[in-house]
Every structure is written in C-alpha cells, then in structure tokens.
Amino acid sequence: MAKARGVNKKIEDLVKQIGQKLSEETVGEIEKTAQQLGYLTVASGEINRENGFLAPTNIDTRDNTIWMMAIMGLVASEVGEAIEALRIPDRKKAREAFEEEIADIIIRILHMAHFLKMDVHKAVEKKLEAIKDREFLHGKYL
C-alpha cells in the first residue's frame, strides 16, 4: 500500500476496504486530479462570468434558488445532447460529440459550484464515504 498522505488517506482507506491497493503512481494521479478539479472549478466560473453568465453567491434567497434551478435545467439539456450524441452512426464522431457534451455538463456544474463557493472535492469525498457501504446495485437490476 502506498504511504497515505493528507486527503488521500480517506481515499486509500476506502480502497483498502474493498480489497484493492493503491500504487504510488495512482496516489499521484489522484492528487493531480484533485488539483486540476480545483483549477477547473475556478476557471469555469470565471470564464462563464466574463462571458455574461452571472450568478449569485448566496442560495438563501428565492431568486438564487431559481437561478440554481435554471442551471440544473441547462445541465439536463446537456445530458439530453449527450444522449443524442450516442445516436450518431459513426462511432468515432459519436464519441467526440459525447465527450464534448460531457464537458459541457461538467462546466455547467463547476460554474454553479464556483459561484456557490462549494468545495467540490470535499463534497465528492463525503458522498463516496456515504455510498461505499451500499448494497450492490442498491438491490436493483440496473
């Protein structure tokens, strides 16, 4: 098992619980990905702001809740576009279009997270901790 470091200790503990081991290379990739996620969160928020997609920073008012609902509607529309991309007959073009739509989904979510001053890494880590003990497929077929 790679030496546990900081934030990665929780990830290593999760992986250990399911009987897998993390190599030093994997731990390094996790650290790099976490740093990139932080950068992308800020970048997507600032780029969207510069392009006129302003956002509130306080979700405690009705107007801000409506803004969040609008962003989630845009996320849903991007999900629909990703599904449409999968229908493209040419598999290479389908993959390219699908990846572009997935990027749009992530950008929309990071834009919202940035303006809410949300710690995405911490939120995902918390959710992974909550779901690690769920039964296989939540006891469902799919």
Name of the CATH first level: Mainly Alpha
First-residue to last-residue Cα separation: 33 Å
The fraction of residues in strands falls at under 5%
CATH level-3 fold name? Helix Hairpins
Number of helices: 5
How many distinct domains? 1
Averaging pLDDT over every residue, what do you get?
A: 78
Computed CA radius of gyration, to the nearest angstrom: 18 Å
Total number of beta strands: 0
- Name the overall outline: globular
N-to-C order of helices and strands: HHHHH
Largest sheet: none
Could you list the spans in which at least 5 consecutive residues all have pLDDT below 50?
1-5
Helix content: 55-70%
SSE class:
mainly alpha
Q: Can you name the CATH architecture?
A: Orthogonal Bundle
List the helices and strands and how they pair.
Layout: H1 8-17, H2 24-50, H3 62-85, H4 91-115, H5 120-131
Structure, described:
This protein is mostly helical. It has a single domain (about 10-140), classed as Orthogonal Bundle (Helix Hairpins). The chain contains 5 helices and no strands. The chain has helices spanning about 10-15, 25-50, 60-85, 90-115, 120-130. Helix 2 crosses helix 4 (about 90-115).
What attributes does this structure have?
single chain, 142 residues, mainly alpha, Helix Hairpins, 5 helices, 0% strand, globular, disordered N terminus
